[in-house]
Hints:
Blueprint: H1 7-14, E1 21-27, H2 38-42, H3 49-68, E2 90-96, E3 100-107, E4 114-120, H4 126-132, H5 135-140, H6 145-166, E5 175-178, E6 183-186, E7 191-198, E8 201-207
Antiparallel strand pairs: 1-3, 2-3, 4-8, 5-6, 6-7, 7-8
Amino acid sequence: MIGAATPSLQQALKSLTSPNLLIDCRSIAPGDEFSLLPEEAGSMATRSVKARRASGAARIVARGFLARLGFPSCALPKSPTGAPLWPAGVIGSLAHDATIAVAAVARTRDVRGVGVDIELAGPLSANMMGLVVTPAERQRIENDPVRAMHLFVAKEAIYKALHPLDGRFLEYHDISVDLPGNRALTRNGRAIELRFCLSTHIVALALV
Ligand SMILES: CC(C)(COP(=O)(O)OP(=O)(O)OC[C@H]1O[C@@H](n2cnc3c(N)ncnc32)[C@H](O)[C@@H]1OP(=O)(O)O)[C@@H](O)C(=O)NCCC(=O)NCCS
C-alpha cells in the first residue's frame, strides 16, 4: 500500500493482486493534487481541488505500477468520456471515495479490460436498490442490502472495464451479476470475471 490507508484494506487488496494484475490504494492527502502532470490537470481543469486531489492520489499509485512494469512515467489524462488514457501496452482503472484512491493496472497482453470501484462497506440505501438491482438479482440476494452494495460496486467496476472497449452506455439493469460465481454477464453478451475484497471498504475488480 502507498500512503497511510488502513492496514485491513491493504491486507484485503492483496487478495485481488495476481502476477498479471497490480492493485493498490493510497490515503488521499493534501498536496496530492500537485502530482497531476500538466496534461492531466488540463483534462480536469474545471474540477474542484478535492476532486483533483483524489485523481492525483490515484495517479500516484498508477505511476508506481507503470514503473514496476518497466514503462516510463507518463501522463494519464482523462479522455472526453472520463476514462483515463493509458500508454500503449497497458490497461488500468482508477477509483476513489472521500478518503482512499485505488488503481489497478495490467499489461494488455494479459488482460483486455479492467475496472475497479470502491465504496465504504455497508448496506446499499433502499432508494438505490430498485435502480441497481434487477428483480432476478433481488431474489438471489434475498433483498439483503449488504449484498446489494456488492452488486453496486461490481456494476460500477464493470462499466469502467467495458466502456473504454465498447463505447456503450450501460444501465445497472443491463448487467446481471452472479455473486457466488464471481462473474457477470451484460445484455450485449460480455462475460466478466469479478473479484471482491472487503474491509473498511468494498473493492470490486472487473476483468474482461
Ligand atoms: C464511470 C463511473 C461509473 C465512475 O463512477 P464514480 O463513482 O463517479 O467515480 P469513481 O471514483 O468510482 O471513479 C472515478 C474514475 O472512474 C474513471 N472513469 C470515469 N469515466 C470512465 C469511463 N467512461 N470508463 C472508464 N473509467 C472511467 C476515471 O478514471 C475516474 O477517475 P479520475 O477522474 O481520477 O480519472 C460514473 O461516473 C459514470 O460514468 N456513470 C455512468 C454510467 C453508469 O453509472 N451506469 C450504471 C452503472 S453500469
